[in-house]
Design brief:
With 335 residues, the protein is of the alpha+beta class. It has 11 helices and 13 strands. Strands 1, 2, 4, 7, 8, 9, 10, 11, 12 and 13 form a 10-stranded mixed beta sheet that branches. The chain has a 3-stranded antiparallel beta sheet with strand order 3-6-5. Strand 9 and strand 10 form a beta hairpin.
């Protein structure tokens, strides 16, 4: 399905106008509606439905529409939309009955359309072509020209973690949700700045350089605007990565582990109380690969993640990896 640059630009501009500036947003919607014909409104109806279903609908049905049972659906569209989306639907005259529940046909359409939305690209000139006098300045619609950094946090299996450490590319052609907020990405990866590893993993945090600033900006139009969501699709080029986790010995002692793909070093530390009563990390040792016995870096990763065991030469005792703390932090590029 083809989506015109006009529709994509108009929705990016609407999403970028702050919700607190309602008069500017409603004024722009009024002016943008004059640019639309019936064909545009039909396509915009599908675009808005697809966005709503990915950001707040049945995620399993988005991936596999045949799994959707409309009889068991609880929420109608009015419960799935973000603040102000009702105004967009009303003012543009979109064919979305907010009192109705999504149908299987809606999910089939969304499944086909979301990869197109996620791969969409707009130049600054293309966005600027559909502004009005109050949105001509890019600062009045900040972010509408695209986001070069986005983040995706997700809990995964250990098998997915292992695959990611050996792959050069990862196809997200079916479209995924990302965030312009690193903090939100970390939340979805069950971690935070002050935490070592994850709390509820295994998890993966993708730090994506979105070179062409592609993607559909759901952001403020989503039911969850604080997630600052960008729908993205394409093929990620994986780069260097770090992995953090905690490990435990037979006596119940724990220590932190960090693995670095570039240096191929695994380092270990414990939190110790200093003379001032403050807890600070104390280095326990490190392993640089390959080891003298021939163990390679990937061998170590495979055992740590796949078997949850650690064979250490510099630190005494038998240590095992705490699965729920595994966090893979991967740098990736989307051209």
């Amino acid at each position: 399905m083809e989506i015109s640059k006009k529709i994509l630009a108009v929705l990016r501009i609407i999403e970028a106008i702050p919700d607190y500036d309602r008069s500017k947003k409603m004024g722009y919607i009024y002016n943008a509606n004059k640019m639309m014909d019936d064909k545009d409104r039909a396509v915009m109806t599908d675009v808005m439905k697809a966005m709503i279903l990915l950001t707040a609908g049945n995620q399993k049905a988005v991936r596999n529409p045949e799994s959707y049972d409309p009889d068991s659906a609880r929420d109608n569209y009015s419960w799935l939309i973000g603040q102000g989306v009702g105004d967009i639907i009303e003012k543009f005259g979109l064919d979305i009955n907010l009192r109705s529940k999504p149908t299987r046909e809606d999910y089939v359409m969304a499944h086909k359309l979301l990869p197109v939305l996620g791969a969409s690209k707009l130049s600054p000139e293309e966005v600027g072509q559909y502004t009005d006098m109050f949105t001509r300045n890019p600062m009045d619609r900040y972010g509408s020209e695209g986001h070069q950094k986005v983040y995706r946090g997700v809990t995964v299996s250990r098998n997915v973690i292992l695959k990611a450490t050996t792959r050069k590319t990862w196809n997200i052609g079916h479209s995924v949700s990302t965030s312009t907020s690193e903090k939100k990405g970390m939340e979805f990866a069950k971690t935070s700045v002050s935490m070592h590893g994850a709390n509820g993993g295994p998890a993966m945090l993708l730090n994506i350089e979105n070179k062409s600033k592609r993607g559909f900006h759901a952001g403020s139009m989503s039911r969850y605007p604080n997630e600052r969501e960008v729908i993205l699709s394409g093929v990620l080029q994986f780069g260097d990565w770090d992995m953090d986790f905690k490990c435990r010995n037979a006596e119940g002692e724990t220590m932190n582990a960090s693995i670095h793909s570039t240096s191929q070093v695994a380092s270990f530390s414990k939190m110790k109380q200093n003379d001032q009563g403050l807890y600070r990390p104390m280095t326990m040792g490190s392993e640089t690969f390959p080891l003298k016995d021939g163990t390679t870096f990937q061998d170590f990763v495979d055992e740590a993640v796949g078997e949850l065991t650690l064979n250490l030469t510099k630190i005494p005792g038998e240590w095992s990896v705490i699965e729920s703390t595994i966090l893979l932090k991967m740098n990736a590029v989307l051209e």
